Amino acid sequence: MSTQKIHLAIAPIGWTNDDLPELGGEIPFEQCISEMALAGFTGSEVGNKYPRDTTVLKKALDLRGLQICNAWFSTFLTTQRYEEVEKAFVEHCTFLKEMGAQVVGVAEQGNSIQGRQDLSVFDAKPVNSEQEWKLLTEGLTKLGQKAKEMGMALTYHHHMGTGVQTSEEIDRLMRETDPALVGLLYDTGHLVFSGEDPMDILKRHFSRIRHVHLKDVRKPLREKAIKEKWSFLKGVKEGVFTIPGDGMIDFKPILTYLKEHGYQGWWVVEAEQDPAKANPLEYAMKARAYIRETTGI
């Protein structure tokens, strides 16, 4: 297939972390997007430092040959009225559509512990009740319909510290939602950190994958996170995640499968690290070189 059907983006989380403001708090928006372009990427996701005025943001990105491909959206379908979630979702999609994005990545945060620094991400991981599953899957299908009406595609981001983290939970979410309305945001780092088989999920749910996050996992730090009962954010600060090719994941079969089976869309390098320990430009350039060497893209 033509490699032009796959586009490469990088998330700002390697420069400045929305959940941990102390990581990269001093790095300005302009430096972040300039270094993305310098490293050879053509797309970006959205961070908290990005201007919300679409005219201002478009100008800054156009100068650097970048475009927005997605922005995280927190759903609270298990803890808020559906109408409240939908209102915020429509506003979010309106912004993304104006920026030229075609997908919106969502993750349920109603019972999430990913932001709790006092809880072990493994020991305290939430498990959805039957009622919560019903609220989540029915709500996602309705939001997916809204997204479709707006010319967008909803993709669900399985995530550490949430009720949709394991292979079984991903399987259930896919089984109980409409394939035409709810896609999957496939994230290698979250799968491997959780202990899942990324190739198994890739093959089983390939037809649902609308967006891809590429990040690696440092095996010794993952083992330490389990042993010492780290929170998710403690793991981020200590360096559990890194760029593709710098950790324990064998990316060659993953990227080859995506290419050979006709995946179309964005591959997003999304390796949240402490920029004081992992220079963002250096690691972005390493990631870009690794993808080129591994796939020819």
Low-confidence stretches: none
Report the CATH superfamily: Divalent-metal-dependent TIM barrel enzymes
Overall tally of structural domains: 1
Task: Give a short account of the largest sheet.
Answer: 9 strands, parallel
Look at the structure and give the CATH class.
Answer: Alpha Beta
GO molecular function, one term: myo-inosose-2 dehydratase activity
InterPro entries: IolE, IolE/MocC, IolE/XylAMocC-like, Xyl_isomerase-like_sf, Xyl_isomerase-like_TIM-brl
Pfam family, one: AP_endonuc_2
EC number: 4.2.1.44
Give an account of the 3D structure.
With 297 residues, the chain is α/β, with parallel strands linked by helices. The protein contains eleven helices and eleven strands. The protein has a single domain (3-295), classed as Divalent-metal-dependent TIM barrel enzymes (TIM Barrel). The strands form two sheets. It has a nine-stranded parallel sheet. A two-stranded antiparallel sheet has the order 9-10. Strand 2 (43-45), helix 2 and strand 3 (67-70) form a beta-alpha-beta unit. The longest helix is centred in the middle third of the chain and has 20 residues, at 130-149. The N and C termini lie close together (11 Å). It is an enzyme of class 4 (lyase). This is Myo-inosose-2 dehydratase. Its EC number is 4.2.1.44. InterPro entries: IolE, IolE/MocC, IolE/XylAMocC-like, Xyl_isomerase-like_sf, Xyl_isomerase-like_TIM-brl.
